[in-house]
Amino acid sequence: MTYRYIICGSGLAGSVAARVLAEKGERVLLLEKLDHVGGSVYDCEDQAGVLIHKYGPHIFHTNNKRVYDFLSRFTGWRDYQHRVLARIGDRYLPVPFNITALKMVYGQETADKYLRLLKESYGTDTVSVMSLRSSGIPELRELGNYVYDNIFLYYTVKQWGKSPSEVDPGTTARVPVRLSEDDRYFTDLYQGMPENGYTEVINRLIKHDNITVETSCDALERLKLSDGKIFFDGEETDADIIYTGEADRLFRYRYGALPYRTLDFRFETLEQDSFQPCATVNYTVSEDFTRITEFKKLTGQKINGVTTIMKEYPKEYSASEGEIPYYPVACKESAALYERYLAECAAYPRLHLLGRLAEYRYYNMDAVVARALEMCEDVR
């Protein structure tokens, strides 16, 4: 059978692209290396019947109405406003650090003083931790240092394996101090969880007569790039290739491996109704893991007498069997290396890179969907 598009990867990026192209009347072959569709957004019930996110928690949020409306064709939404707490000793503080946290740490009177100084000095809704630490006002420097030491420092070292000064500023900027009592982690207009899980969303996206799906299929065992020509199953093809995997692997690591961070997930099923006060608790000053997710609080599943939690242990990605690259490591060296692989792609006009791994940049889910929609408007 002849396909107009071959898509490598059935995660959110690949599945959205497949659906859009199929609805345009194009025949699409969707290849997935894992034994299930969905990539890292895959969810399933564990042995206790708890719906878990196998590859880490995913929370949908966006201000992009086009993205929200598109996905809403394939799912209803459970209203869910994500909240995160930091476990510091026996106390839980809201993340991002906000007025509520300020009062918990310093008391009402001192908190009011700090808040007045913050508003007079910055006049914005949020302030970066680094700005506070370099403030000319001693009280604000003290506040900045407290947030840095208790919310930011150790968590960042665990997450990235580097000190904050070595981490890309764009990454550290995602941790603000919020000058309000809003304790939601995200403030986007549209927030929620798919009412029947992400795997059902993926299955609905790819259920189309023009889409053929093959799982347990490593696309790079069938795809070869040579001298500006694309070969599939040993024959030259004029199909467009949408590739969502790692760019360095696509070119057989010709210039070396791009650095990533991966995660080691430890699941525990407990015979109790509840484990922690919200879905996500960050461990910012203790423990080897970064956070614990309690899935029932994330998904809204009603099941008594049992709950499943997951601890996350970040580490350097080594491409060992079973490891998955999750986070591109942003730095000058990795950016330069990626540009070399990007230049290789220019020799193949029908090759399109899509998603966090292929484009080597951090994307939230809504941005991945937006990129897929945009790409499918532009490809021939």
Class computed from helices, strands and strand pairing: alpha+beta
Name of the CATH superfamily of the domain at 5-42 and 196-257 and 330-378: NAD(P)-binding Rossmann-like Domain
Write down the CATH class of the domain at 5-42 and 196-257 and 330-378: Alpha Beta
Terminal residue distance = 20 Å
- The neighbouring-strand order within the major sheet is 8-7-18-19-20-17-21
Shape: globular
Unreliable stretches covering 5 or more consecutive residues? none
The biggest sheet, with number of strands, parallel, antiparallel or mixed sense and barrel status, is: 7 strands, mixed
Radius of gyration: 22 Å
Question: How would you summarize this macromolecular structure in one to three sentences?
Answer:
By secondary structure, the protein is α+β, with helices and mostly antiparallel strands. About 30% of the residues lie in helices and about 25% in strands.
Fold blueprint:
Elements: E1 5-8, H1 12-23, E2 28-31, E3 43-45, E4 51-53, E5 60-62, H2 65-72, E6 77-78, E7 84-88, E8 91-95, H3 99-106, H4 108-122, E9 126-128, H5 129-133, H6 138-160, H7 169-172, E10 176-178, E11 190-194, H8 198-206, E12 211-214, E13 223-226, E14 229-232, E15 235-236, E16 240-243, H9 247-250, E17 260-270, E18 280-283, E19 291-294, H10 295-299, E20 307-316, E21 327-328, H11 332-345, E22 351-353, H12 365-378
Parallel strand pairs: 1-2, 1-16, 2-12, 7-18, 16-22
Antiparallel strand pairs: 3-4, 5-11, 6-11, 7-8, 9-10, 13-14, 14-15, 17-20, 17-21, 18-19, 19-20
Helix pairs in contact: 1-12, 3-4
